[in-house]
Amino acid sequence: MDAILQAIVNGTLTGSIYGLAALGLTLIFGVIKVINFAHGSCLMVGMYAAYWVVLLTGVNPYVALIVVVPFLFFFGYFLQDIVIKPVLEAQSDVREPTEVIIVTTGVWYILDNLTLMLFGAEYRVVQTSISGTSFELGELIVSAPKLYGFIATIIVSVAVVWFLNSTKMGKSIRAASLDREAASLMGINQYRVYNIAFGIGTAIMGVVGCVLIPFYYVFPTVGVIFDVKCFIIVVLGGLGSIPGALVGGVIIGLIESIGAQFMASTWTELIVYVVFLAVLFIRPAGLFGSKLDW
Hints:
single chain; mainly alpha; 2 strands; 72% helix; globular
C-alpha cells in the first residue's frame, strides 16, 4: 500500500510538470490554431539556457528563471514574428493553416541539429543545491525538485489565467482566439497578439527547463520526449484547454508511475496510448474540450 501511495505522489508531481509543458502548447493552439511541432525544441532551448546559466554563474536554477524566461519569451516572440507570421498572412482566410505545421516541423529539425552541431550529442547534467534532495512525509519520500516543479505549475497556471482574464492584452488574446476577424474589426492587431501568445507559450518552456535541470539530463533531442507527451496530453485534455492540459498531465504521470509498480515501463507507454485512444473514442473533443472548437 505504501508503494502505491508513493507512486501516486511521484506520478502527481511528475504529471504536473508534464501539464506545465503542455500548457504552453495548448495556449499557442488555442490562440493561433496552429500545432507547434517545434514546442519540444523550445523546451530543449530552455533547458540548455538554464543549464549554461547555472553552470557559468553557479546560481540556483530557480534564480535562473530571471534570465531564462525573458530569453525564451523573446525567442518565441521573434520566432512567430519572423518565421510563422508570413505564412499566417499568406493564409489569412484559413482558420487552421496547415502549412504552418510544415514550418514548425522545419524549425524543430533546425533547432535540434543546430544544437547538436554546437554542443555535441553527449548528455549533460549540472549539480545544483537541490539535486537529489527530498522531504520525508511519514513513510513517503517527496522529491524536492519535483515538489518545486509542482508549485511552479500552480503559480504559472494561476498567473496565465489571471493574465488572460484581467489584463487588456489577455482579453485581446481571448478575443483573437474566439474570432480573429471580429477582433481585427475591433482594432486588435491580431499578429501582435499572436506574437505575444507564442512568446508566453515559449516562456513557459523556459520555466519547465529550469524546473527540469536539477533532475533531468540535457541533450539535443530531449525535446522529442516531451513533445510526444505534450501532444498526447493536449489532445487528451482538449485542444486549447488550460485545465485539460494540467489534468491530462497528471493522468499521464499517474499511469506511468503506478503502472511501473506492476509492469515494465514500455508497457505503461502502451497503457497511455490505450487510455488516449479510449478517451478520444468516447469524447473526441478531449476531457475539457468543446465541440464548438471544431
